[in-house]
Predict the structure.
Amino acid sequence: MSEVTSRLTTEDQKKLSQLFGKADLHLLYKASVHGFSAHSFCAKCDGQGPTVTVGYNNQGFIFGGYTSQDFGKYERKMDKKAFLFRLHNWSSIQPLHIAVNPDAATFINSNQGPSFGDLVFQLESKKIESKPGQSFIFNTSDLCDSNVDLVECEVYRVEELKAPWRNLTWTRNSRNKLIDFIKSYKPYVSSVSKARVLLIGPVGGGKSSFINSTNSVFRGHVTSRSLAGATNAPKKYSTYSFRGDEVGTSPPLILCDTMGLAEDTESGISSDDIISIIKGHVPNKYQFNPASPIKAVTKGYVKSVTVGEKIHCVAYVIDSSKATILSTEMEKKIRGIRSQVNLLDIPQIVLLTKVDEACPLVGKDVENVYRSKYIEKKVMEVGEQLGIPITCIVPVKNYWSDLELDCATDILILSALVQMLRYADDYFEDLDE
Ligand SMILES: Nc1nc2c(ncn2[C@@H]2O[C@H](COP(=O)(O)OP(=O)(O)O)[C@@H](O)[C@H]2O)c(=O)[nH]1
Ligand SMILES: [Mg+2]
């Protein structure tokens, strides 16, 4: 789909952003594109954190409300940070800011459209309903010259930066330290020369791109090795060793790429095949057949397996840019796999990809990743959905359109790799005991 463009001019955006301090706006919903309906609004805006709703009437008035709370069906919430506003098209006139009455609750309820208690956007009838006096003290004429007909309604996520919730140093020196860690890493078990990490996740999550990105960082320039973005997703099992100027001829890591997970039971890799990979029975280049998982009698099945051929860490690769990160079916599927992987005592982590797409502040500057409230929210969300501790979730931005390497992007990728090696070592230590 072509990108939906904001109706706010740059000047309007600047004025509106002033009302929040240091914040960026990310357009989630535009009624003229997504539909003047409560259903379309809910689909785009529920659970997105702080948002600002912007209404337009045919007299050129721009007005609306801010809430720091999630929108969610039939939910009533109190929000002391909520406010209403109006921007004026005369640049000399400051935006009007109407703070919430501190004694009154603001009820957020997306049943009909964005609601701020006294101001409700009735999307189906393209009107606002305004009954000032309870949560906010204002005159409808000040907001919109009492012209309640809506020609457009947009909802933006308000992206704010906070003190970093995880500390990373973004210098060349710290990048090089991560490289050094990888170069000097040796698996705890002497019979194993490389840690094997299996990447699992829904199609399009960024598995192949992560392998390409790793290869790029190790080589010192952007490369394209694994088939990223393949529309006809490969059904082959592929294992990747690396080499490169940065890490020498044999860095101690193998990344294993699988066919993606699908929501239904017929397509996508089966849980049985995943367990066979983890146990080391699946040969490189094996063609999966979702209808018939690999068995001991299947051609190529690896019968006697050494520790080095087994998987030592599993990484779930999940796209952070989707409004709902994991559907109920996908959550169930991954939880099912997780419980089997737990029984095998394999450490597991999550790579939360596409953070540049999920949060525009990170898109502008990758160093904002741990300062983005939105990314933190997504980390919590995925942690809760999969029952994985936050410490095991690493946000990454892959090299997907870039032509040149960038220090901050390298640091995120290398941090994820270091985390994998550390977890693999936990596995080796447990084996030794
Ligand atoms: N913006 C953004 N796009 C990404 C990122 N990683 C992957 N992509 C895109 O997402 C699509 C799917 O990625 P791919 O690696 O093929 O996913 P796979 O099916 O899990 O192997 C490709 O078009 C990539 O360009 C990322 O970190 N940021
Ligand atoms: Mg792929």
